[in-house]
Amino acid sequence: MSSALTSKQHRFLRSRAHHLQPVVQVGDAGVSEAVIAAADEALAHHELIKVRFQQGDKAERRVMTESLCAGTAAHLVQEVGRIAILYRPAEDPVIQLSEA
Hints:
Layout: H1 7-17, E1 24-26, H2 33-46, E2 48-53, H3 58-72, E3 75-80, E4 83-87
């Protein structure tokens, strides 16, 4: 991953993700290679995605989210309940983040 996102960038990305539906679901098997591959492909197409976790307490979901971020080289934008928002800029970014 490149440098961390600023609080202003987090706010911007959260606002962009508000209307999105989850495109990746993590089920009973947890974060498997197939889930990482699906998230990687979704990030390549969309840059900003929501991931839904079907089970696990807060600590387990946090570990799964960190594993997913590490496996896809994505930034964690936000975690709310069973939903995580991930961002990874594309080769030709569609979402333009300000440097501030």
